[in-house]
Amino acid sequence: MELCPGCGAAVRPGDGSCPECGARLEGATESFPAVAEAALAAYGIEFDASDVPVLVVLKGAEVGERFYLERPEVSIGRDPGSDIFLNDVTVSRHHALVRVSENGVSIEDTGSLNGTYINDTLVETATLSNGDVLQVGRFQMMFIGPGGA
Description:
- The chain is globular.
- By secondary structure, the protein is mainly β.
- The protein is built from one helix and 13 strands.
- The two termini are about 25 Å apart.
- The strands form three sheets. It has a six-stranded antiparallel sheet with strand order 4-3-13-12-9-10, with no helix packed on it. It has a five-stranded mixed sheet with strand order 6-5-7-8-11, with no helix packed on it. The protein has a two-stranded antiparallel sheet with strand order 1-2.
- The chain is about 5% helix and about 35% strand.
- It has one helix at about 35-40, and strands at about 1-5, 10, 55-60, 65-70, 75, 85, 95-100, 105-110, 115-120, 120-125, 125-130, 135, 140-145.
């Protein structure tokens, strides 16, 4: 079953847009591991495949920093108690929550002021695919699924 990258709703193969949120789906449900590897190389970041999903910082304080998503829930925010602490005023204290399950990895905006974006699209919730770029405030991170790069 394919899922809308914008809202996570089920979509049929060949659908041009999501029946729930209207997001354009052309090619969005496909995964291209080589694209993620090329994008990381464009930022000068070398990456070895991991057995767990990971977020790699593309823009922000520490380009190339890796956040391994090893727990079922990983919080992102400006609060020092966040699992992924992003110290910038453009990030809300409790900005987003990443959920890791057998079905994949999803992200939920938890009421942030500036929003959470996947591939330049504002989302409330979304399922992440290999190579997706997550933006939280001024920070951009590429999602790399298990074994991907």
